[in-house]
User: What shape does this take?
Amino acid sequence: MPNAIIVGASSGIGRALARELAGAYDLGLAARRTDRLQAVGEDVGGAHVARIDVTEPDARQRFDDLVESMGGVDLVVVSSGIGRPNPDLAWTDERDTIDVNVRGFSAIATAAVQRFEASGGGHLVGISSVAAEIGDPDMPAYGASKAYVSRYLEGLRYRSDDAVVVTDVRPGYVDTPMAPEADRFWECSPETAARGIARAIAKEKDVAYVTRRWWLVSKLLAVLPDRFRADVA
Ligand SMILES: NC(=O)c1ccc[n+]([C@@H]2O[C@H](COP(=O)([O-])OP(=O)(O)OC[C@H]3O[C@@H](n4cnc5c(N)ncnc54)[C@H](OP(=O)(O)O)[C@@H]3O)[C@@H](O)[C@H]2O)c1
Assistant: This one.
């Protein structure tokens, strides 16, 4: 069975994806809250668990140790991320968002791709967001960090031959501890999001919107005149 590592598997989308992929992959689960990772592992019939704080200097080493303990890795999903409403622009919130979503994301993404390039192939999946496509006045670092994630993944895809697959997943609203209150029409469950992500993985998509209606939203945002963008943000 192939091996998959999910970073950010202790909650929300990452946890639901662990449940979705169990059975098709041997799983490695990483995040800071190992008690929750253990519970997810028990839930899915066993998994390798590792405490990784993606912002810490040892994050890449801990990721490599997890890969070694599993005997290699075929699929890496980076779902770790934070997003805090921050209308007063508190610097600590902006800084933490950049630390986790930009620096931490890059630490794991580079470790994964370097490993895939050395071993002959693999699949990297980054969980970006539709928020990558429009500035957010209440949490500007969040949308900007997701724009970074999407563009970074594009760069990794362009450097890779066909052996290294890179998928950029852009969810809309998903009902998780991170998500702001959303209209039910716009929101999906973590389980629905996980099914969409699993489909994108199986199809080796370059970019996948979850749920698919967000593809249309993205196209509309792209052609919306500048003077209207602030009204929908
Ligand atoms: N929910 C939405 O509406 C939505 C929409 C678009 C995109 N997304 C993206 O989807 C991803 C998952 O978010 P979610 O909604 O599932 O939120 P969540 O339930 O809060 O899960 C976030 C995950 O990130 C992990 N994490 C946070 N900081 C970390 C750190 N320093 N090191 C390692 N892991 C860390 C958390 O684990 P620990 O706290 O245990 O470390 C947790 O497992 C994020 O990248 C988010 O930006 C979410």
Remarks:
- The first strand starts at residue 3 and ends at 7.
